[in-house]
Each structure stands twice: as C-alpha cells, then as structure tokens.
Amino acid sequence: MTPGLYMSFYKQNGSGRHLPWSTKRGRIGLTILLVVVILLAGLLYSQRHQIHLLISGSHTVGGEEGVADVHLPPGFQASVFYSGLSSPRFITFSPDGTLFVAERGKGSIVALPDPHHVGKAQKKVVVVSGLDDPTSLLFYDGALYVGEQSRISRFTLGPDLKVTTRQVIVPNVPTGGNHTTRTILVGPDGNLYLSIGSTCNDCVESDPHRAAIWVYHLDGSGGRLYSRGLRNAVGMAVNPWNRQIWVTVNGRDYMGDNTPPETIYALQDGGNYGWPRCQAGDLIDPNYGHSGDCKGVMQPLLKMQAHSAPLGLAFYNAPQFPQRYHGLFVAFHGSWNRSIPTGFKVVFI
C-alpha cells in the first residue's frame, strides 16, 4: 500500500470520493467518514486533552478542484485514490495491505488494490454483495468481519479475493429507527464488540440492545450487554497506550446550537453513560432527566462542539509520523441542524 492517511468521502447524490492523506514520513490507516462540505469550525478544550485542527476546507469535495481546496498542515498532501463509490463508510486494510471499503449504497464490501504502490487504486473488486447496509469491517485472525444493520457476518477469502466461506455469526440485531449503522471492533481481550445506536433522538428505549455496546465471543456466542446509555457510539478504537476501548458518541439534538457537547468515552464493563436522562456526563435532560440522574454516570474523556458529529477515530503511535502526530485522529461528519454549520474536519488530539 502507498503511505498515507486514508479517508472516505461521499456525496449525497451517491457518487463517492476516496482520498489518501499522506506525509513524506509514513502512513496511518484511519477508518472514518466525512461528508460533502468541509468548513472551519470552533473547537472545545478539556483539561486533559488539546484538540488541533488537522484537515479542513471550504468547498464541496467532488472533483480534483475539491481536493485542491482541502486545507492541510505543512508536509501533508492530498490526492484521489479512487472515485465513484456509492456512500462509502468505514475502511480497513487486509493483512496484505489492500484497502477494503464498506460501500453502503451498494450493499457491498469492495477491495481497491494498489499493487504497484502508486497511490491510486487500479480497479474496484466487489468482494461481497447483497449485504444489509454494511457500515463497518475488520480483519482478524484470517477472517473478514462485517457489521451490517441486522447482523454480523464473517467471511474467509481466497487469494483472488473471492469468498470461500460465509457465516452469519450474530443474527437478529435490531433494525430501524434513527441510527442504523453498526460498528464492530475486536477488543484487546479478543472479544467482538458491537455498537447499536438508539432508535430516536431522545427517548427511553425498551430494547436493551439499543443505545448500547454488546460483546460477543468471536464465533458470535455468549452475547451480553457491556455498556449502556450511549445514544449513538459510532467510532470505536483500542487505545494502544492503556488498552482501553474509546468511542465517539453523537449527542442529542434540539437543545440549542451548543448543547450538549459531543463526547469521547472510555468503555467500562457495566458502565452507564447516562443517555437519555443525563447528557454528556453532567447535563440533566430537559425531557427525561430528574435531579440526581447524572450521579454515578461515566464521565467523558473529552467534550467537543455540539452537533459536529464525531465518527471515526484512530490512534497512531508508529515511527513513520513525526512524534507530534502520535495520538488520536478524529473525523467529524458535520452538523445538519445547527444555525451555523460546524464539523466537516479531521482533528488531532
């Protein structure tokens, strides 16, 4: 693979743009989603973490001119790796370095080989089709795992990228509602974690699967509730320094332009993160909260601008990037209902 920081973009009309962000010092695979318009936006700071704007812009990403309008730090450059995808979401690399993409608009997992390492995919290979709204994917122990809206599936692939075995390991994941993406992660304990968002903006869920993280054995057995009260935990990654699982959480709407903040949490077995009665660790919800509802809930590691919609996050501690880029990268979908749009960026923490 060509060194770079790989990201996926999509346009609402269904066409796609996939860009590698690279430095001359090395690469980092960042599984994230960014939406059409990229705008500068305000940032919040916590006592423990400082946020630095890394990638921003001011134009729709939809052609080579859009790439030129993306703002990058000194030493970084952008180019088009592959275009024409239909609503790509998360991305990952296979063990041999081939880029794989969850193409939601086609219900497919596709591979984008770059065998000569020229920084541009030579073709698109449809690896799996007929999936139910696939959004996340990962390779682990020789198998490809895919998070679909209604299930988790596991595949093995031959050297020609053709499927040799296919198995639904977690069936009957609840569907519908406001949040239909399903993020999967193999944790440091070797178990499989699944994030399922809420059905609503703000409500009391009757199904314990919603607004929660569930954990399973790798074969899909032994499923149990791991963490609850997470309205929509989209990004999940293992912190290499302390082996915690960190998640980005999209907070509720209709509490004003700046409330509640978006959050990053460390997952804890049995942890209650407060939603819907307590927002962002310390805000009592105006519809469902009562005095004391924030007592004992898990506190966020980081609070960020409300409605900026953090999605993908990736830790980096390899030697290729300069030391100042050892830390956490977070990508923001961007707001849809804020009076002044915000988000549409990548930040380094």
Radius of gyration: 19 Å
Q: What is the CATH superfamily?
A: TolB, C-terminal domain
The averaged pLDDT comes out at 86
- Overall structural class, as computed from helix and strand content, comes to mainly beta
Largest sheet: 5 strands, mixed
CATH architecture: 6 Propeller
Q: Into which percent range does the helicity of residues fall? A: under 10%
Total of DSSP H or I helical runs spanning 4+ residues: 1
What count of structural domains?
A: 1
Per DSSP E runs of 2 or more residues, the count of β-strands stands at 29
Query: What is the CATH level 1 assignment?
Result: Mainly Beta
The separation of the N and C termini measures 26 Å
Silhouette: globular
Taking pLDDT < 50 over at least 5 consecutive residues as the criterion, the unreliable ranges are: 11-48, 58-63
Protein described:
- This protein is 1% helix and 40% strand.
- It is mostly beta strands.
- It has one domain (5-348): Neuraminidase (6 Propeller).
- The strands form 7 sheets. Strands 1, 2, 3, 6 and 7 form a 5-stranded mixed beta sheet that branches. Strands 5-4-29-28-27 form a 5-stranded antiparallel beta sheet.
- Mean pLDDT is 86; it is low at 11-48 and 58-63.
- The two termini are 26 Å apart.
- The protein is globular, with a radius of gyration of 19 Å.
